[in-house]
Amino acid sequence: MTTRPSSMRDVARRAGVSLSTVSRVMRGVPGVSPAVRERVQNAADALSYVVSRNASGLVTGRTCRVAVVVPFLQPWFFGSVLAGISDGLREADLDMLLYQVGDLRGQRGWSRTLPLRRNSDAVITVSMDLSAQECDRLDDVDVPLVLTGQHVPGRAGVSIDDVEGAAKATRHLLNLGHTRVAYIGSRGGAWLSLSSRSRLAGYRAAMAEAGLPEWSVLCSPGDEGGELAMGELLSGHHPPTAVLAEFDAIAVSAHRTLRRSGIPVPGAISLMGFDNHETAAALDLTTVDQSPRAIGAAAAALTVEILHGAAPPDRYVEMPTQLILRQSTSAPRRTEGLS
Predict the structure, then answer these.
(1) How far is CA 330 from CA 2, 38, 186, 270, 276, in A?
(2) Alpha-helix runs per DSSP H in 7-50
(3) Which end of the chain is more exposed for a tag (fewer CB within 10 A), N or C?
């Protein structure tokens, strides 16, 4: 014969208090006298009571869960942000419900089909590039919404300034003395369009500020995109002396073309990325660090603060970026005839 596990009601009956009092004690919420708190804890220990999310939710109206919506679990950026969110929510004793939306078709209908209302106390989106209409639709879920990797005025969110980050990277190359600075960006994709546009805008702003013409090439996603784009840049009579890639994966791909062509980095062409991916250090790649795990942790912290009333529901947190100077960039040298 099996014995059913003790319930919160059993603890309340043994301690002679209400269910709400037991819930407050179990969650560490203030407003309970030390004597009553001790009595409840002793009753829970005597009954070997384990806190039940569902039972606590019946009293508080909370699920103790946060829905996190992400387009994909890969590449590296998404996984790193999710790790930061998971750490932050776990520290606050909240569970993470993960929804992977997938392709463009999934993006168009996800906010209508996901059961967010009954399953979560808040929603965090990661690099979803939501439209105003999609944000408004999520308001119908009637739980706090925190945008990660996207800044929408009047909405809670955590992101970097992609425009300034790319401008800062471009200025680094200009300050080294380069005047022929090219940019390799992604051709698009439903999930990267916002950051792609912002980083390209930052590059263009820095070049215009220096009075120099822009020189950008867009590549398709995948390992070969950066390779082909770098090949296009090298095909002219006057190749660039420096190249900034939208993110490190493109820079790594472009580096393969330079290596196969026997073109030294940075001896002939300086190469710079964005993200500070794990492979950037292995290639000694100069890059812009945006610490995606820290972004995720900040998004989790903001969500917890909003749930506890410690932050307004429209607070925006801008995370810093940092230049990571390595050996892939240097002052320009002669590059004519490299094609």
Answers:
(1) 73, 66, 25, 6, 18
(2) 8-15, 19-27, 34-46
(3) N
Tokens at 95, concatenated: 């569970």
- Measured distance CA(124)–CA(73) in Å, rounded: 15
What is the CB neighbour count within 10 angstroms for residue 106? 14
Calculate the alpha carbon distances from 131 to 50, 105, 160, 190, 283 in Å.
Answer: 42, 15, 19, 12, 37
| Segment 159-171, tens digit of pLDDT | 999 999 999 999 9
Q: Are 182 and 240 in contact (CB under 8 A)?
A: yes
Pairing of β 322-324 and β 287-289 = antiparallel
The 10s digit of each residue's pLDDT in 236-274 is 889 999 999 999 999 999 999 999 999 999 999 999 999
pLDDT lower than 50: segments of the chain: 1-2, 58-59, 190-191, 335-337, 339
